[in-house]
């Protein structure tokens, strides 16, 4: 969905667009707010991320990326935990008013950040990832009903995402609405069902905001270009208290009250990490 220039300038979504976005997430499992971050902010984030990725590949590439080990084997998709430091912890990343206005309606106002990371499709991938949700069943095989949305993934692409550079493929309109036990190991296999279902590639301009239910089926696709396709990736959770994010105390004290609340369960007083493989 597109928002007006006035909304971008004031960082305030109108009520109609908030409700539209909320309904799209509830019905389809996702919403995209196209190109809402300032161009100069996206350029700053992209430069810093490219430097972090170059450092990571130089230090760890042989063991992780070049040897295609683990879940990323053959896909050239790489998840990197980011340091909680500028520019990655900019207020337009961690507490964007558009995203918070939407999430407040879905998650309540007491949710927190439980992931501070990134997902990058690197050139040279030979196959797509398996079709998957990001979270499994909360109650194993016990719960046979659909549960409310409790976790939303927040992505910001740092380049224009198109068919040639590894866009995410999604299965919207129902895969986030299954009974809880369907997301467990004894539920239907997404790889078996997905070829018979409607999917779409997520194309969006740099600086967009993508919000999606963690349960919506999706996968990364191969990047056929010569440049990386990076996404910043955070998860906002109404229930979980995962505390993998290390935040120096002086950094935490400089955050807004809302940002402090969002990161209240994290490792406050710990040094910011180096870029680290998920």
UniProtKB/TrEMBL annotation:
Question: Which GO molecular function annotations are given, in alphabetical order?
Answer: dioxygenase activity
Checking Gene3D superfamilies in the record gives: q2cbj1_9rhob like domain (2.60.120.620)
Per the UniProt record, one Pfam family is: PhyH
Establish whether keyword Oxidoreductase is in the entry.
yes
What keyword terms does UniProt attach to this protein?
Answer: Dioxygenase, Oxidoreductase
Q: What InterPro entries does the record tag this protein with?
A: Fungal_Metabolite_Diox, Phytyl_CoA_dOase-like
Q: Which PANTHER family match?
A: PHYTANOYL-COA DIOXYGENASE FAMILY PROTEIN (AFU_ORTHOLOGUE AFUA_2G03330)
Q: What is this protein called?
A: Phytanoyl-CoA dioxygenase family protein
Q: Which organism is it from?
A: Paenibacillus lignilyticus
């Amino acid at each position: 969905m597109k928002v007006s220039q006035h909304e971008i300038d004031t960082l305030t979504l109108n009520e109609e667009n908030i409700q539209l976005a909320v309904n799209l997430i509830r019905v389809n499992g996702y919403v995209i707010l196209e190109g809402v971050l300032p161009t100069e902010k996206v350029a700053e984030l992209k430069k810093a991320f490219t430097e972090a990725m170059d450092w990571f590949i130089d230090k760890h590439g042989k063991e992780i990326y070049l040897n295609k080990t683990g879940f990323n084997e053959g896909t050239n998709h790489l998840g990197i935990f980011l340091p909680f430091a500028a520019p990655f912890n900019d207020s337009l990343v961690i507490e964007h008013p558009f995203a918070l206005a939407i999430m407040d309606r879905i998650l309540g106002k007491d949710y927190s950040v439980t992931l501070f990371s990134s997902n990058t499709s690197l050139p040279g991938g030979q196959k797509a990832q398996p079709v998957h949700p990001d979270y499994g069943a909360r109650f194993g095989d016990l719960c046979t009903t659909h549960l409310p949305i409790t976790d939303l993934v927040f992505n910001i692409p740092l380049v224009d995402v198109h068919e040639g550079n590894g866009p995410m493929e999604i299965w919207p309109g129902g895969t986030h609405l299954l009974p809880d036990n369907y997301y467990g190991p004894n539920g239907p296999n997404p790889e078996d069902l997905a070829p018979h279902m409607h999917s779409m590639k997520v194309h969006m301009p740099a600086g967009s905001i993508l919000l999606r239910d963690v349960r919506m089926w999706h996968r990364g696709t191969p990047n056929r270009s010569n440049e990386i396709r990076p996404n910043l990736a955070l998860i906002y959770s109404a229930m979980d208290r995962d505390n993998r994010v290390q935040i120096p105390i002086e950094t935490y004290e400089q955050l807004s009250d809302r940002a402090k609340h969002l990161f209240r369960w994290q490792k406050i007083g710990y040094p910011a990490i180096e870029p680290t493989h998920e």
